[in-house]
């Protein structure tokens, strides 16, 4: 069982011992630390925080604890109930709130939950802000409100509808064009809030929807990370229903993957590539993704006359780089689409609408579209960490081993070879080392990953 404290929030497994897992006491402590920091940071007396959650089994319990803690600090809460990460992000500025908390462990299995923390723009906190909250949590110095000064709770369960309306308002989204195309789409909502939000958006765009695992019970029918090995059911259903394509989201709806009409994975990496292709074709400009993302985005960006840059892994790092380079679209290769015309956050609803526009205007099949893009293949593997492993020393050893290659150390170790690359980094959300590789064939990508894993294990003395 695990508790991970990072600048982006707190994430852990439910149950167990305080300080080692995400127990009720830990949830209260970190909610109190966030509220205490917010009072100091804002300098205002009357504060307001938006809170929403995904559908996981512990969500209601954690939400009750967090809401009550924030109210106990004298801060008003706008309670969205079942929501999505991007929905909370857009709600914060629309409500003129001072911050937001999303209760979700994203793609992690059902025993996990987390507090994701937002600023007044509905964006994730930066490193210094996150560090300060961790310090406050460790200090246990909280000043709760007197009885007459307690905050109040305002419930608002309409924000997924508001979110859909905000997507429909985007200049590059034309409902009539999409409706005219007559799409039929299968949606796998992994029995979380994507099963509410994505069908609502598709129906508003005139798309025929076939629902798979769209009941927000929190009982995930498969591993919620949208990877090929977890998605056999939707791949088969897309072919059976002769659908145009399938849509898969993770429990908090910030990661988006497509299934092609032939039942094959479009590729999470190519979600951003396709959306960027559409946006850049209408409004040329620059793009950003992270170091673990495909070279295909660079190729598409340069084809449209723009410039591409890579940021360290993590949404806040990508957003910072996007702002610095005036990027018009960006995101992460895990299917996270960040489109500033909407907001600076990964948003599967926005990504779905942009993809539908691309398909409606270009015509042909999704499989044809995928075949039109530069052909790269990725392998995403991991090594489970144990407490005795010195991860920094392992990564440094790999850096030294490949010192004669093009190496970046701004986030773990990325080694760029002429025809492929490997990125090694310690996860911020799980006790693992992630090993991402990309090459011009799947066999080559898998082989490179296995070679690097063997070398790491040899250095670490792991069997």
Description:
- This protein has helices spanning 24-42, 59-72, 85-94, 127-139, 159-168, 175-181, 194-204, 232-240, 268-282, 296-303, 315-325, 348-362, 366-371, 391-401, 442-460, and strands at residues 3-6, 9-13, 48-53, 76-82, 99-103, 112-118, 153-155, 184-188, 208-212, 245-249, 256-259, 286-290, 308-311, 327-332, 336-338, 377-384, 406-408, 413-416, 421-426, 432-439.
- It is α/β, with parallel strands linked by helices.
- The protein has a 7-stranded mixed β-sheet, sandwiched between helices. It has a 5-stranded antiparallel β-sheet with strand order 16-20-19-18-17, with helices on one face. Strands 9-8-10-11 form a 4-stranded mixed β-sheet, sandwiched between helices.
- Helix 7 (194-204) links the parallel strand 8 and strand 9 (208-212).
Write the layout of secondary structure elements.
Blueprint: E1 3-6, E2 9-13, H1 24-42, E3 48-53, H2 59-72, E4 76-82, H3 85-94, E5 99-103, E6 112-118, H4 127-139, E7 153-155, H5 159-168, H6 175-181, E8 184-188, H7 194-204, E9 208-212, H8 232-240, E10 245-249, E11 256-259, H9 268-282, E12 286-290, H10 296-303, E13 308-311, H11 315-325, E14 327-332, E15 336-338, H12 348-362, H13 366-371, E16 377-384, H14 391-401, E17 406-408, E18 413-416, E19 421-426, E20 432-439, H15 442-460
Helix pairs in contact: 1-2, 1-4, 3-5, 5-7, 6-12, 7-12, 9-10, 9-12, 14-15
């Amino acid at each position: 069982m695990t508790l991970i404290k990072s600048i982006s929030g707190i994430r852990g497994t439910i149950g167990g011992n305080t300080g080692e897992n995400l127990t009720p006491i830990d949830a209260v402590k970190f909610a109190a630390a966030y509220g205490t920091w917010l009072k100091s940071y804002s300098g205002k007396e009357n504060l307001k925080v938006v809170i929403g959650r995904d559908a996981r089994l512990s969500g209601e319990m954690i939400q009750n604890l967090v809401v009550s803690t924030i109210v106990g600090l004298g801060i008003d809460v706008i309670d969205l109930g079942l929501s999505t990460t991007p929905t909370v992000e857009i709600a914060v500025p629309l409500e003129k709130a001072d911050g937001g908390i999303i209760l979700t462990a994203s793609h992690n299995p059902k025993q996990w939950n987390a507090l994701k923390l937002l600023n007044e723009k509905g964006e994730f906190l930066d490193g210094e802000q996150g560090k300060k909250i961790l310090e406050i949590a460790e200090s246990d110095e909280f000043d709760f409100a007197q009885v007459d000064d307690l905050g109040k709770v305002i419930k608002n369960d309409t924000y997924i509808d508001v979110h859909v309306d905000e997507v429909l308002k985007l200049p590059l989204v034309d409902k009539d064009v999409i409706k005219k195309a007559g799409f039929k789409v299968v949606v796998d909502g992994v029995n979380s809030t994507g099963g509410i939000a994505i069908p609502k958006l598709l129906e508003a765009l005139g798309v025929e929807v076939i629902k798979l695992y769209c009941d927000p019970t929190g009982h995930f029918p498969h591993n919620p990370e949208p990877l090929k090995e977890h998605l056999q059911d939707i791949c088969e259903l897309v072919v059976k229903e002769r659908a145009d394509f399938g849509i898969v989201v993770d429990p908090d709806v910030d990661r988006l993957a497509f299934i092609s009409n032939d039942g094959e994975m479009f590729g999470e990496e190519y979600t951003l590539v396709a959306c960027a292709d559409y946006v850049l074709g209408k409004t040329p400009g620059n793009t950003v993704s992270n170091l673990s993302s495909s070279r295909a985005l660079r190729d598409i960006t340069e084809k449209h006359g723009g410039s591409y840059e890579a940021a360290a892994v993590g949404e806040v790092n990508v957003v910072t780089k996007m702002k610095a380079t005036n990027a018009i679209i960006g995101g992460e290769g895990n299917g996270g689409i960040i489109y500033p015309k909407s907001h600076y956050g990964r948003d599967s609803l926005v990504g779905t609408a942009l993809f539908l526009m691309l398909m409606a205007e270009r015509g042909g099949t999704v499989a044809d579209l995928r075949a039109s893009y530069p052909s790269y293949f990725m392998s995403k593997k991991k090594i489970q960490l144990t407490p005795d492993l010195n991860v920094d020393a392992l990564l440094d050893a790999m850096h030294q081993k490949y010192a004669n290659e093009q190496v970046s150390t701004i986030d773990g170790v990325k080694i760029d070879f002429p025809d492929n690359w490997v990125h090694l980094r310690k996860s911020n959300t799980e006790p693992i080392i992630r090993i991402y590789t990309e090459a011009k064939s799947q066999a080559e990508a898998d082989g490179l990953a296995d070679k690097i894993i063997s070398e790491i294990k040899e250095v670490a003395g792991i069997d």
